[in-house]
Design a protein that fits this description.
The chain is of the alpha/beta class. Helices cover 28% and strands 23% of the residues. It has a seven-stranded mixed sheet with strand order 6-13-12-7-8-9-10. The protein has a six-stranded mixed sheet with strand order 2-1-3-4-5-11, sandwiched between helices.
Length: 301
């Protein structure tokens, strides 16, 4: 049974930490103002606006900030400032014992998929949602859905169908995140159990051949045989080679489901886009795909 972090109330404290790439001070300042306007108190990690080569701080400094946020009883949610790369370098150095006793929402996407996978393994829900790096450019839906998720509101989404969709209905825990990061964790201690799950995937900036390779990795690891449904978020800035690969993104993905009869929906508004709507990973979810419409509806615990 998944543990669901406690919903936040107005006046609760949120911590902003930067577990990966360095981030500009004005971005954090804007995020602090936004979260305060939403009714929360905000604590900023000591090294959040630091700089250590590519990262916001050394591995030890980034672990310190994250651990402090976990251990701080006032902090009810941990917002990751941005992705990039770096979460995998620190995930094993964090002590999760206190977190399991009193789980908190961990919020982010992209490289933060590392934490989402770890939490799925630990049996704790988390939020695949926008991060401070993107607040200035986000749609109102993206920002509002994050606050709704933090404060305990149920999330339900409906979006237009695609001719590439496969119709059907499935119920299960929602898991996933960034495709490349997720594939990098296959076969590791952070690979969760995908049996009977609904898998969400998004990606940015990859070549078509690389996406084809990643879906073969999902297939050959047995993941595609275990899931009950597949939700495709935004796949943007996808590139082809000088000699064309010869298949579209949809064709690449659907080739792996010719003999797998599960619902599949493309174009869910989440990922590396301004309209990055929040998903509660680990929550039991109803996924419906018809000819004209797709829906994701959070179910009761």
């Amino acid at each position: 049974m998944m543990k669901i972090p406690q919903q936040l109330e107005k006046g609760d404290t949120v911590a902003i930490v930067a577990p990966a790439k360095a981030i500009e001070k004005d971005v954090i300042s804007h995020a602090k103002t936004f979260l305060e306007d939403a009714g929360f108190k905000v604590k900023i990690g000591k090294h959040c606006m630091g700089n250590h080569n590519y990262f916001s701080g050394s591995d030890a400094e980034r672990v310190e900030d994250f651990q402090n946020a976990i251990n701080d009883e006032e902090v009810k949610a941990i917002v990751c400032a941005r992705g990039g790369y770096g979460c995998v370098r620190i995930v094993d150095r964090i002590n999760w014992v206190d977190f399991l006793d009193q789980p908190k929402w961990i919020v982010g996407f992209s490289d933060v998929t590392v934490f989402h996978q770890r939490l799925t393994n630990l049996g704790v829900a988390s939020l695949h949602a926008t991060m401070p790096l993107n607040y200035k450019d986000n749609s109102q839906n993206a920002l509002t859905s994050m606050v709704k998720a933090l404060t305990g509101e149920k999330l339900s989404y409906s979006w237009n169908g695609s001719t590439s969709n496969k119709t059907g209905m499935a119920e299960g825990e929602l898991v996933g995140g960034n495709l490349a990061v997720l594939c990098g964790l296959i076969g590791t201690t952070d690979m969760p159990d995908y049996k009977d799950k609904i898998l969400f995937l998004e990606e940015v900036g990859e070549h078509l051949y690389a996406l084809d390779r990643m879906f073969y990795q999902l297939e050959k690891s047995g993941i595609l045989d275990q899931i009950r449904g597949l939700v495709l978020g935004s796949f943007i800035n996808i590139k082809d080679t000088e000699v064309p690969f010869g298949k579209s993104l949809d064709e690449i993905i659907l080739a792996h489901f010719k003999y797998r009869n599960i619902p599949i929906a493309f174009d869910f508004p989440a990922g590396h886009i301004d309209d990055n709507n929040t998903l509660k990973l680990g929550k039991n979810t109803l996924f419906t795909v018809s000819e004209d419409n797709c829906a994701l509806d959070e179910l009761n615990d």
